[in-house]
Amino acid sequence: MRAIAVLSLAALPVALPAVADEAEVQALVEAMKLPGIIEVMQQEGTAYGASVGETLFPDIASGVWADAVGDIYDLEDMQQTAVANLADALEGEDVGAMLGFFTSEPGATIAELERSAREAMLEEDVEQMAREAAAIAMADETGRHQQLERFVQANDLIEGNVQGGLNGSLNFMLGLASGGGVPTMSEGDILAQVWSQEPEIRRSTRDWTYSFLTLAYEPLEDGELDAYIAFSETEPGQALNDALFSAFDAMYNDLNRELGQAAARYVVGMQL
Hints:
Elements: H1 18-31, H2 34-56, H3 62-72, H4 75-89, H5 95-102, H6 107-120, H7 124-140, H8 143-155, H9 157-178, H10 187-196, H11 198-216, H12 222-232, H13 235-271
Helix pairs in contact: 1-5, 2-3, 2-4, 2-6, 4-13, 6-11, 7-11, 8-11, 8-12, 9-10, 9-11, 9-13
InterPro entries: DUF2059
Keywords: Signal
Organism: Pseudoroseicyclus tamaricis
């Protein structure tokens, strides 16, 4: 899964109705199991929001903060935003080729494996087992791990997700600052603090990425994973990967900024 979401898309002749584009994009969204993946993202976001509250204002009634977090990580809003962002990012691209891959084999199976693995890793014991399996495969330099390295490289998963993580952290801090939550920090201070997180974000990104991929693709034959890598290296595959990063990064940037702004209201309230 790339990171690791309906409007007019392809540059079709003017005579064709826009609804045809919308239908194609919606079909791609369904084929890739993105609604289910966004449900997992919503649960991850809610848990992250709770941890923010526990860190910044542990004495605030948890239910009050939970309601605020729930309003930010609203599933329907996240679904609509991600799909609209994806449609914008895919405008003019060969959506038909992408849809063709994920509605045939092995694409259809891969999409479901990615969704189910993402959901399974919400459980701490499953994530821990996946991390251990990935660490062993990496240490032994197994053939499957070498395949996963090719997949990661083809989709720029480490750099793309590190950049997304840094941007998310930056937007949270900017939201916190805009609401008066960190009055002593300048924009330069914020940038320095965010950049100081880069090594840890990179480490955790690499660990999580290989853990997820090891778990998700374990049932695949080598030839099936090779087919996915080959698709990822095509022009439509690269365009889809770029669009997914663009769509979800934009969504997460907005969510993190909103979370920072909400947190600032509680921080300022504690200071009054």
